[in-house]
Amino acid sequence: MELAEIFNEVYWTIIGRLFLNLAAVVVLGRLIYYPKQGRSREYLFTYISTSLIIFIVCIMLSQVKVEMGIALGLFAVFSVIRFRTTLATPRELSFLFVSLGLALLNALVPLDNPFIRLLTSNLLILAIICVSDYFLFHDRGVTKMISYDRLDLLDEAKRNEMEADLKERFGIQQIKKIQVGDIDTLKGRAKIKVWIRDSDQHHLEE
To answer: What residues pair up with 13 in beta bridges, in sequence order?
Structure first.
């Protein structure tokens, strides 16, 4: 078989889509997901590697005749993906599903479809995710559970004094709200939940 038959127009179309998918997932993971404080590089690697393998598998299967049962079985395998070693948040799972969707989109759209149309679809998806993530969550802040030993400051009338105490002792700034939970009078401690605006992204989410 000659090289011209191997590296034909279809091959280069697939390579172009591969790099488009890789670029889209990198933008999704590195520029939209990862900059937020507390987000893990492990998830970034998961988004890229999972999207890559699904793209390759789907693009290969799209070139051969696949029975419906096999296709549904493949979808079922990917649909049962779980993070066993750590607890993933709904937003982290959402980013995973978006990366899977991008891989399926870039792999299963017919190869004769104009590349510019596929590029536009990827950009539109990324733009919607970026805008949604920014406007819905950019000022969401984080929460902290604290075992607090100043029971004399739990009174609502002394809330300003409690905030001043938290800022002085723990360096917690930009407090939005405080809720008081269980109170242990024997140990002289109470559980409090503190909402922090965290515009400087110095705190990890509880």
So the answer is: none
